[in-house]
Structures are given as C-alpha cells and as structure tokens.
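[step 3/7] fold_predict: job queued, chain A
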Amino acid sequence: MLTFIPLIFFIGSSLLSYWTHGLFVIDQVGNYHRGKFLPFYFFILFAYILYLSIKAEFLSKKAKNYLYQKEYKVIARFSFLPFITALIQITVDHLLIFNLGLTYSIFIVYNYFQQNLISLDLLTKINNREQLDIYLTMKMKDNHQKKIFIYFY
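[step 4/7] structure written:
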C-alpha cells in the first residue's frame, strides 16, 4: 500500500498544478515553465527509491548467499543514475534527461536478472555448462597471458 503513495501524490499534484502552479505553469502563449514546488516533488519521489537502495545495500551485507548479495547490490545501485539525472534536470532549464536515466537504470537491472535466468540452473542455482565454458576460457587466457608476461621478463 505504501508504494502507491508516490503515484497518488504524482497524479494529485499534477492535476492540482494547473490551478496552483506548484509543479508547472503554462502561460497565455502556451509555454511551459517550472513550478515553485518541482524540487520538492522530486524529493518525494526519490525518498522511496533511496529508501529501497539503502535497504538493499543493508541486505547485501547481511545475505550469506553470494547470488543474493549480488542481486541486492544491483538493486542498491539502481537509484544512482536517476538521482544524478534528476539533479541535472532540476538545475538545467528545458533539459529533460531524468526519464533517460531512469530507463537506463531499469535496463541494467532487467539485463542482470535476464543474464541470471540464462546462466543459472533454476533448481540448483548453480552456473550451467555454458557459464563453465566461459569461465574456463577466461582463466586459460589469463594464465596464458601471465606466462607470456613472465617469459619476457
């Protein structure tokens, strides 16, 4: 139920902003201008995302399973790029970059979870044969490069 508070706040403040000019102002010519409460609006929205990130970071330190630690860390780092792009959007007028940062962060998290579905066995949560081949190939290349490096010196 608490996750719907930002959505309700967004819809309510957007509808009321036409009369109160809190988030935006549309002048007589039809030009958009930022409202006086726009930074407060971003703060309300990011309070939930930052809470999620802090909780995920705490859970990553507490988790005993390596896979769960990794998942929590990906979720904890989710809010970094949208936060930076929101700060840029608030400070630079007529630059709409927040949606790009949010979309890219969602893509990173989605890609991570898709990679886990592809590379892990669902029952045992162990890497499959393809991941083993990739790991062994990387290790053999690393050892080969180290031997060449040692050989020349």
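[step 5/7] annotate
The first strand starts at residue 24 and ends at 26.
Residues 38-62 form the longest helix (25 residues).
exit 0
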